[in-house]
Each structure stands twice: as C-alpha cells, then as structure tokens.
C-alpha cells in the first residue's frame, strides 16, 4: 500500500538557519508523483512542487530546494536562510496511480505533516 | 482570478444532525476533490468529482456523500453526524483531465465542522 512518512512532527529554528524536512514514501508502482504543500495558519494548502518518478534531478527555487532519491524512497525539502514567513505546516504527498483518470491527481496520500516554526 | 471558495467557514452541529458543505472551484476547473483533516488522522481523501461524475472515493462510510453540478460547483454531505466527524474539510480544484494540467491542486481555506 502507498504510504508517506514525515518523521519530524515539529521543528523549531531561528531565522536564517537552514532546515531540511524529511519525507519517505512507500509504493509498489513505478510511475507516481510526489508533492510538497505548505499549510499556513489560514488553512489552505499551497502547492510548492510536483516531481514525477522518472525525474530524479534536484530542483531549486529561490530559497527552496528538493532532493529526490528513488534509491532511498525519499523526497526531502530544504529551506535555506529560513524566514519567519516560512512558519507553517509542510506536507509531503504521493499520488495514488490507481486513481489516475485522464491525468487526474485528485487523490493524494499525504504524510502527517511537519510543523515548522521559525523564530526571529 | 478568484480562488477556491468554501462555505460555510465554520459551523457547529450536534450528533445525529446532517451537514452540507459547499465548494466553488476556480473558474475553468472541472475536477473537485474533498479531503478531511483531523489532528489524529491527518489529511484523508474523501472523493473526487469530474464533470458531475464521482470517479474516485476514499475509505469513508456511506454517511459521507457528495455531488457536483454542471457549473463544477460541488457539495458534500455528512449525515447522522458523529463526534469523530469534527474536522477541517478541504476542497481542492484542478485542471485534472484537461489540457494544461500541471498536477497542482488548488485548495480552499476549508470548512471547520465541530460536532457536539
């Protein structure tokens, strides 16, 4: 069965520190997508990145970077020089390919999330 | 461009009652998904609708149901409420099944249901 594990429940850092959020997933499928979402206190989840299982290139977007390693089934997320505005709950998610329909990604399997607190 | 709108934002019900939650997707999106978020279980997929048809369903009892209208707006209903149904219900829309789909889900701010 598909599963996403975010072992870090809460992380607290001081502004400008780098922080890495871990994500380990389980799936028997060879084709799947991995996601990261951010949930600020307002509640809505904000999309950060999608990575497909055939693309293991690391990605950098500003202060954010992602390290995808199929060999260890991990998709870790690093925030460089953290800021107070980065404080939120971060979720890693895996698409359920058995629910795909015409490219649909409506069914995601989420990890329990990591609450990041960045203190000034 | 307006985002995903969910109503009501907050509501309180008692056990045994039923509740209907509404979701207006981003204009042009035809796929709408619903998720339940609780502290214990986290985010769990409820169901997904596309062009008025339910095409995926999560592992929830039959008390949870939904529908989608021709304008892509969606509603979900929970009947015979239980204390454990207290949760944040999130709706997401996407371009799934359509040209230009990036796989991104656009979430609303949710409807927070408290069952007493």
Describe this structure in words.
The complex is a heterodimer of chains A (120) and B (116). Chain A is mainly beta and 120 residues long. Chain A contains no helices and 12 strands. In chain A, strands 2, 5, 6, 10, 11 and 12 form a 6-stranded mixed β-sheet that branches. Chain A has a 4-stranded antiparallel β-sheet with strand order 3-9-8-7, with no helix packed on it. Chain A starts with a strand and ends with a strand. Chain B has 116 residues and is mainly β. Chain B is built from no helices and 11 strands. In chain B, strands 2, 4, 5, 6, 9, 10 and 11 form a 7-stranded mixed β-sheet that branches. A 4-stranded antiparallel β-sheet of chain B has the order 1-3-8-7, with no helix packed on it. The mean pLDDT of chain B is 92. The interface between A and B is medium-sized, with 27 and 31 residues.
Low-confidence stretches of chain B: none
The overall average pLDDT of chain A, rounded, is 89
**Anisotropy-based shape of chain B:** elongated
Q: In terms of quaternary structure, what is this?
A: heterodimer
The level of helicity of chain A is under 10%
How would you spell out the order of helices and strands of chain A? EEEEEEEEEEEE
Shape of chain A: globular
User: What is the succession of H and E elements of chain B?
Assistant: EEEEEEEEEEE
- The proportion of residues in beta strands of chain B is over 45%
Walk me through the topology:
The complex is a heterodimer of chains A (120) and B (116).
Chain A: E1 3-5, E2 10-14, E3 19-21, E4 24-26, E5 33-39, E6 46-52, E7 59-61, E8 64-69, E9 74-79, E10 88-95, E11 108-110, E12 114-119
Chain B: E1 5-7, E2 10-13, E3 19-24, E4 31-38, E5 42-50, E6 53-57, E7 64-68, E8 74-78, E9 87-94, E10 106-107, E11 111-115
Parallel strand pairs in B: 2-11
Antiparallel strand pairs in B: 1-3, 3-8, 4-5, 4-9, 5-6, 7-8, 9-10, 9-11
